[in-house]
Amino acid sequence: MEIIRIKNLTKRFPMGKGEFTALRDINLEFGTGEFAGLIGPSGSGKTTLLNIVGSLDVPSEGEVFVLGKSIGNLSSREAAQLRKKNMGFIFQSYNLLQVHTVFENVEFPLLLLKYNATERKKMVMDALEWVGLTDKEKSKPPQLSGGECQRVAIARAMVKRPSLVLADEPTANLDAKNSHHILQTMEKLNRELKTTFLFATHDDKVINYLHRKIYLLDGRVDNEEIVEHSQIIQS
After folding, report:
1. Which residues contact 77 (CB under 8 A, 6 or more apart)?
2. Using CA atoms, how far apart are residues 38 and 54, in angstroms rounded to an integer?
3. 68 lies in a domain?
4. pLDDT level of residue 114 (50, 70, 90 thresholds)
5. Is residue 188 part of a domain?
């Protein structure tokens, strides 16, 4: 099943009296269960592309379809519904609610989807087990390390078992051991639940897990590589 289809995508931003073209004529498709990454240096356009796929921005030209919905034609409400029901997000900044516990932070997406209390508890504890934080359920973000905060953010993204997870440098604040644990967890969920994962990264730890690598340079697709079995570097 097609999850993402990107056709002739160009994205421009105002800059002074002119414009800056962040993405140029991008054409890509992603199916169910892919474990793929947008790879490139800062300024290559990978985060901009991830934001458009996530309906956080819209194309200047071309079309982007996510789960059959045209991103450029969605109202703000429709875009929010698409994200709420079908997507999980992991960003460099954790965006955790500082006055709420770890459990409550992870539970939040389920409250929006109106799961009952029994369902929520099981789903939250499952997600915390995936990232190794069941013993931190009553802690609050200020009591956690940066790496633990990122793991909470990852659990929150995964808790509703979305069709699509978008991850912008998800291991940026994790050491090598935790990075491998998180990536192995994501790969396991990808394999068992057929969740599609799309990363934006320049981190070799992430790149070595990807099954499909899309290299961006100056807003264009420069190269693409399919990896049958990711070569995982343990460290």
Report:
1. none
2. 14
3. no
4. confident
5. yes
pTM of this structure: 0.90
pLDDT, one tens digit per residue, over 196-216 is 999 999 999 999 999 999 999
Is 33 a residue whose pLDDT tops 90?
A: yes
Tokens coding 44: 């290559």
**Distance from C-alpha of 114 to C-alpha of 108, rounded to nearest angstrom:** 10
Is 59 domain-assigned?
Answer: no
DSSP assignments along 116-168, one per residue: -HHHHHHHHHHHHHHTT-GGGTT--GGGS-HHHHHHHHHHHHHTT--SEEEEE
**In which residue are the tokens 């793929």 written?**
36
**Quick one: 60 exposed, middle or buried, by C-beta within 10 A (0-12, 13-18, 19+)?**
middle
Domain for residue 60, yes or no? no
What's the domain count of the chain? 1
- For residue 170, give its domain range: 35-45+75-226
User: For 54-68, 96-110, 176-190, which range has the lowest pLDDT when averaged over its residues?
Assistant: 176-190
Sole residue written with tokens 């009591």: 143
Confidence check: pLDDT of 228 > 80:
no
Residue whose C-alpha is closest to residue 199's, from 33, 5, 47, 31: 47
How far is 21 from 103, CA to CA, in rounded Å? 41
First to last CA, the chain: 36
What is the CATH number for 115? Answer: 3.40.50.300
Q: How deeply is 45 buried, as exposed, middle or buried, from its count of CB atoms within 10 A (0-12, 13-18, 19+)?
A: buried
Cα 202 to the chain's mean position, in Å? 14
Average pLDDT over residues 132-161: 92
